[in-house]
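Could someone model 5,6-dihydroxy-NADP with this protein?
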Amino acid sequence: MQNFMYNTPTQVFFGRGVEKEIGPQLKARGYKKIMLHYGGGSIKRTGLYDKVTESLREAGLDWIELGGVAPNPKISFVRECLKICRKEQIDFILAVGGGSVIDSAKAIAMGLANDKDPWEIITGGKMPEKTFPVGAVLTISAAGSEMSNSHVITNEEIHMKRGLNTEMVRPVVAFMNPENTFTVSPFQTGCGIVDIMMHTLERYLTPDEDAILTDRIAEALLVSVKEAGPVALKNPEDYEARSTLMWASSLSHNGLTGCGKTFGFTVHKLEHDFSGVFDNIAHGAGLSVLFPAWAAYVYKDNVKKFARLAEKVMDIPVGEDEEATALAGIQAFKDYFRSLGMPVTLGELGVPADAYEQIANLTTANDTKKVPGFRELTKADLLAIYKLAE
Ligand code: NZQ
Ligand code: ZN
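Reply:
Sure, complex below.
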């Protein structure tokens, strides 16, 4: 096991009725004027907006509202909101939504605290020393931003999606009621399941082998999500399945399943340029296509680990031939993603072959940088992976 730092400062309120805690908790922390941030309107349709505002009102808190965050959140909207937040002198940002809304809130918070352009903060290479407090009311189990140390924003003018990881951006508090995910569509539920699994798989599939406790936690999470997924798709109001997915969303990306392991995240790096260039691509759908192709390309670097994954998560017996088991495991993941209704080829994702060059150039800075991780990948490697994903 390698040395590690584990930091999960987010206070979590989990379960039915936790919306009632929002106002009292923010008040107890001394906040007075909240910026309520949300997406395209699902929270109004589901009634969650009413519950959140009622809780703020009852606690005597003042708030302003900035709704309209788009999936794959855009820097132009972050900048617009930032201007308003500066003028309004808010002291807390409450993101009510999924990864896109929470990430937008994190970017605004960084801009606000440092009086700097949020895109420059993400891409400028100089890490700020402070941010502004953010809380989350989670409505979709997927990105894990409710406890994660990262935020991902798209600069739509240059079709570039980039993230920044820093301990500062972990939300201070998260309110998670699985009932608030009952209305998530089957497609977004599938995207979420893939994303949750990927946050753990990217930590599990590393060249090192010796963080046994962490790996077993990872396997338990993957099996639990694998089982809960089809149940939630069949019955969107199954509280237990939605609870498993919601808690797994957080645990998969708060660092727990990576303690003592090398940090990779290669497939995420590849995917972000797909959903950056093609705004209609949902992050989880991109991962669903790229993971099996990436795995088929690199598994030989650690056949043992891929075989263990196949056995522990996909119930494939390890026979004499470890390599056959590893390959059967990769195929089982692909079949599982397909069974969730997810795309598993670039064609299904709507990516034409003539876009490959542009995307590979973006990821490798025009073939000048390798993608780090499980195996360092060059532009030629990426093009070969895209071919496998066709
Ligand atoms: O905008 P609204 O109307 O709320 O609709 C959303 C959106 O259209 C809808 N939705 C959310 N909750 C719902 C609901 N619809 C019905 N009922 C509900 N309860 O779902 C759609 C997708 O929402 P979004 O927030 O985009 O999904 P997700 O949580 O998957 O977030 C994706 C974003 O997070 C980034 C991704 O790259 C992507 O931009 N990621 C962020 C990470 C982080 N900060 O740690 C890590 C991830 O790897 C990921 O990169
Ligand atoms: Zn992800």
